[in-house]
Amino acid sequence: ADYEKTHQKWEPVTRSSLSDWTRTLETIIQWSPYTSESDLLQQ
What is the residue-wise DSSP string for the chain? Predict the structure, then answer.
């Protein structure tokens, strides 16, 4: 799950589909110490 910073905001970079990107993010959150996307973006 990649992000790109544009205009002081982090935007998702989708390589295939938004649903694939969302599923990848959900997997990362499930297996990481972060509990949400916003927690992940704070790192």
Answer: -EEEEETTEEEEE-SS-HHHHHHHHHHHHHHSS--SHHHHHT-
